[in-house]
Specification:
By secondary structure, the chain is α/β, with parallel strands linked by helices. It is built from six helices and six strands, in the order H-E-H-E-H-E-H-E-H-E-H-E. The protein has two domains: 42 residues; 155 residues, Rossmann fold. Helix 2 packs parallel to helix 3.
Length: 204
């Protein structure tokens, strides 16, 4: 009888320890996620003197044209090396990115321009998962890396100029989930509707 009671007590203690461990682990994860969301919402730290490795996610059609216009006004020496990502079925976007990088090489003359890399991934709707295009999965991975402490990166999202009254699905998800460090809109009415967004006029 005593052995039976001892066994019951041992099982109860083991069960409670497992529950406490699970609750503790979940609490730590929640605290870390909240910390990442809070830190991402704060203004960026002072500029680093070294170049910033930059990942550029290209959409298709007008989105790529807007991105190329945005890249043309950035300081290419400040943002390098550059990594371009486009959907596997979108060859036109990467071709435009290659033309842009070639133009930088020609413009630099004797100065060596940071090397660029070009990659293709499947769109979300072309594999077994759910989400818009190529942007959200990549941002989600970057956010998870922050939570796990693997790599801290800043996510800057520029909403399309075509979005006048409300954010796109990608923009809305990044805004609501606090995944973007800064989210830029190109219409003042969007700023009033989404107060944490940044309006700096027309970027493109």
């Amino acid at each position: 009888m005593e052995k039976g009671n001892s066994r019951c007590i041992y099982d109860a203690v083991s069960s409670n320890a497992a529950i406490l461990f699970f609750v503790g682990a979940v609490t730590i994860v929640i605290i870390r996620v909240l910390y990442v969301m809070y830190r991402s919402s704060n203004p960026p730290r002072p500029k680093s003197p070294r170049p910033l490795s930059t990942l550029i996610v290209l959409g298709s059609g007008g989105h790529t044209a807007e991105m190329m216009n945005l890249l043309s006004v950035l300081q290419e020496d400040r943002f390098k090396p550059r990594f371009y990502i486009a959907a596997a079925t979108d060859n036109m976007s990467l071709q435009k990115a290659r033309v842009f990088e070639d133009s930088l090489v020609q413009k630099a003359a004797t100065e060596v321009v940071g090397t660029a890399q070009f990659m293709q991934i499947y769109r979300s709707r072309e594999i077994l998962c759910n989400g818009p295009g190529t942007c959200i999965p990549i941002c989600a991975i970057a956010f998870i890396f922050k939570v796990l402490g693997v790599k801290w990166s800043s996510i800057f999202y520029v909403e399309s100029i075509a979005r006048v009254k409300r954010l796109s699905l990608s923009g809305l998800l990044l805004y609501k989930l606090h995944m973007a460090d800064q989210l830029f809109v190109q219409w003042p009415q969007l700023k009033s509707q989404y107060p944490r967004a940044h309006y700096v006029g027309r970027l493109m």
